[in-house]
Amino acid sequence: MLDQLAALGQGFLVALQPAKLLFALVGVFLGTAVGVLPGIGPALTVALLLPVTFKMDPTGSLIMFAGIYYGGMYGGSTTSILINTPGESASMITALEGNKMAKAGRGGPALATAALGSFVAGTVATVGLAFFAPALVDLAVQFGPADYFALMVLAFVTVSATFGDSPLRGLTSLFLGLLLGLVGIDALTGQARLTFGVPELLDGVEVTTLAVGLFAVGEALFVASRRKYAPEEIEPVRGSLWMTKEDWKRSWKPWLRGTALGFPIGALPAGGAEIPTFMSYTIEKKLSKHPEEFGKGAIEGVAGPEAANNASAAGTLMPLLTLGLPTSATAAILLAGFQQYGLNPGPLLFAEKPDLVWGLIASLFVANVMLVVLNLPLVGLWVRLLAIPQPWLYAGILVFASVGTIAANPSPVELIMLALFGVLGFLMRRYDYPIAPMVVGLILGPMAETQLRRALAISLGDPAVLIESPLAATLLVIALIALVAPYFLKGLERFKAAED
Amino acid sequence: MTAFGRTLARGLVATVAAVGFATAAFAQMELKIMAPAAPGGGWDQTARAMQAALTQAGAAKSVQVTNVPGAGGTVGLAQFVTGAKGDGSQLMVNGFVMVGAIITNKSPVTLEQVTPIARLTGENQAIVVPANSPIKDAKDLAAALKADPAKVTWAGGSAGGTDHIMVGLFAQAVGVDPTKINYIPFSGGGEALAAILGGKVTAGVSGYGEFEGQIKAGKLRLIGIASDKRAPNVDGPTLKEQGIALEIVNWRSVVAPPGITADQKKALIEAIDKMVKSPQWQETLKAKGWDDAYMAGDAFATFLKNEQTRVGDVLKSIGLAK
Questions:
Q1: In this structure, is residue B98 part of a structural domain?
Q2: Beta carbons of A190 and B185 less than 8 Å apart
Q3: Which of these, B58, B33, B12, B93, lies nearest to B270 by C-alpha position?
Q4: Residue B236 sits in a domain of what CATH number?
Q5: Any stretches that span the bilayer, and where are they (chain A) (predicted)?
Q6: What ranges in B57-187 are assigned the alpha helix state H?
Q7: Looking at the structure, do residues B30 and B45 belong to the same domain, yes or no?
Q8: CA distance A84 to B216
Q9: Of the N and C termini of chain B, which has fewer Cβ atoms inside 10 Å?
């Protein structure tokens, strides 16, 4: 522990050099900017910058890349909250409550709790990265396909929190998502499914295209259709622009719980940033003293998932630095960045290049502070966006959504899909179907299917493998409890009522 | 930000181009290189490394890289064959993986239609096992596979890709029916590596670079690489010297559109030749850990044809293609 503290101190000496601070600032700024654009994520940005930074100082460039990564995770939430356009798939859940808050004039507190939650999560998770990396990574590697499948099952159980009032409509939406998840090359056999001879569909449906189509385009169409009859009143600021005492009280626990979910799951080689956000949302809804506010703008529903997605970003760096395992698109490109300088992340990196590793970790703390400093003052400016007259605002959103989609994947097929998903989103909103479960289905479906089939392939088709691992068994039991407990409790209450 | 990145890149290109302008008279070529994959992957890195080396070596005035991701590169290939037809200033990066993807995706356009220019890089393919595995060398692995092919689980990249094909070839080489292999595809190297390190599978297959750190750290055991002779940067035997006739290289190459003139083809080959011989390119190869596998013109065209036949046969024997 002491060794690590000393090393971290050394790292801060590296990270706090003016030149390195500048790199961190540029990274954080770029990251926030690209996080805001739907479709263009930190992965693409770092990839485009790689050749430019070839001749630059490795430590500085890597610090900048890490800043982009953290900034991107944060920037995605701004558009989620303000204009219901998730910039990244991990900030989709944030849009659920965040955008409702923004429409009720509480955009300021929503952005603030997202910023502070990201800060808390990023900082706590970076501490975790600094001190527990080697131990946790050994554990993460033990996670096999069967364990992942159990984790996915648990994640599926949590989806119901996003269903709204009608489980039937929620399930319909979820299954639409699962159906879309089948499109593309089957990962295990390499055969095309439901692609109808369109080569662009071979890679499946892009999550951000679906999310942006359903959320942003669908919303724009919906608002346009209602405008004549019942114009929606949007008040940019109602009450305080900042978080009230009540907001703080309702936010700090979700921040910590979100971090506790995001960090370990992010550290799993196939964990990802989305699953912890689903789980955090469900837990907050269950634990909240104001469950009736969920779906109408509950601050806990922003605080928890935002913390979770930022903590997972730090978690992802753990297998990257200690094992050289890239577990997200951005991490894969960071790995390419390391290799560009002849550095091989892995068990030897900590021993061979302590300056660089600890400088990087220290600069993550610095990047976190910068993000808050950069973003909190901007909150006031951002919420003014909502004061833009609706026709302009929504026209802008449409342009924004299309440009982002095209930039990420320059193909007419992608744009047509965006438009179709937009129409679908409009119809779903019109007939009161929740849209989030559909996106969740698209994210979880292929993951769950692949892991299940991998587990079965390894066990030669013996289903016992799914419960043999203690980890998997535990996760499945938790999932089962989460699934039946509400019914059981309801029955118990009825029983009690009958007794009275 | 993209605007910022582009400005930066443009600035760089402009400076470099100005230098190039002064040094070489024929460096008037304005090239477009398509990487038929998303930014960050191997083909994209190759295209961007070419961009830098071509301009710095003065072999081209400016080079623009575009990304057309999708379906193992076949989306990009289709666009390249139809959109760039007869254009002597366009190039596309491709490689071994595309040969397989064309067959498994039943792509309507194939590599028959492009004009082969040169093979550029190669990467050694390696087989590893977890350090605590009872399997010590290729003979043990072959014996285990012969005993029960289904019980030997292989982790590697996507179905029908280089790693999968290599496992099929391994089975063939040791006399096991390739349709019986139990290959578990993973997306990207990271996930597969985790499964191997965690002992979830018997063996792993990928480019040597993916495993290097873990082999040196003693967490993985190298069973062998699939090259014809020992590689200078690899501390370990080939499969061939252990009696398994298996040679496969994950190569990357560059091709031109169909319908270009002989002069255009010659000019492109000259530009690439100049690039490959430049110190910048050699430096890049070293930094990225790529092997120089340069082979240009007709020799490459023949090689490409042979690889197509070989990959087609293997995919059929694994049961991934008809």
A1: yes
A2: yes
A3: B58
A4: 3.40.190.10
A5: 21-50, 62-83, 110-136, 148-164, 171-192, 204-224, 317-336, 356-379, 391-407, 413-428, 435-452, 472-489
A6: 74-83, 96-104, 138-147, 162-173
A7: yes
A8: 48
A9: C
- Residue from A302, A366, A383, A281 nearest A117 by CA: A302
Q: What is the DSSP string of B195-242?
A: HHHTT-SSEEEEEHHHHHHHHHTTSEEEEEE-SSS--TT--S-BSGGG
Q: Tell me whether B1 touches chain A (CB under 8 Å).
A: yes
SS3 sequence of A237-256: ECCCCCCCHHHHHHHHHHHH
Same-domain check for residues B135 and B244: yes
Task: Please tell me which of the candidates A46, A325, A344 has its beta carbon nearest to residue B194.
Answer: A325
State how far the Cα of A476 lies from the Cα of A480, in Å rounded to an integer: 6
Chain segment A97-149, per-residue pLDDT in tens: 999 998 888 888 999 999 899 889 988 998 888 887 767 777 777 888 999 89
- Measured CA to CA in angstroms, residue B79 lies from A62, A416, B107 at distances of 35, 18, 12
| C-alpha closest to that of A250 among A294, A215, A218 | A294
Question: Chain A residue closest to B209 (CA)?
Answer: A344
Residue A319's contacts (CB-CB under 8 Å, 6 or more residues apart) are A137, A140, A267, A269, A325, A326, A327, A331, B190, B194
* CATH code (residue B89): 3.40.190.150
Q: Has residue B287 been placed in a domain? A: yes
Average pLDDT over residues B35-47: 80
Provide the token pair at A495.
């029983």
What residue ranges do the domains of chain A occupy?
A: 2-468
- If asked whether residues B270 and B235 sit together in one domain, one would say no
Residue B165 CA: distances (Å) to CA of B94, B168, B294, B312, B320: 17, 5, 23, 10, 10
Nearest-neighbour CA in chain A from B305: distance (Å): 23
Whether chain B has a CB inside 8 Å of the CB on A287: the answer is no
**B322 inside domain:** no
Are residues A120 and A262 in contact, defined by beta-carbon separation less than 8 angstroms? no
Q: What percent of chain B has pLDDT over 70?
A: 89
Judge if B116 and B135 occupy the same domain. no
User: Is B312 found in the same domain as B205?
Assistant: no
Quick one: B159 and B60 in the same domain? Answer: no
As for the ipTM of the complex, it is 0.78
Rg (CA), chain A: 22
By DSSP bridging, strand B115-130 and strand B220-225 are antiparallel
The arithmetic mean of pLDDT across residues A438-463, rounded, is: 90
What are the pLDDT digits (tens) for A235-244?
666 667 788 8
CB pair distance less than 8 Å for A339 and B289: yes
Contact B69 A203 (CB under 8 A): yes
pLDDT at res. B23 = 42
Residue B165 located in a structural domain: yes
Tell me: do B154 and B237 sit in the same domain.
Answer: yes
Nearest CB among B52, B66, B160 relative to A54 is that of B52
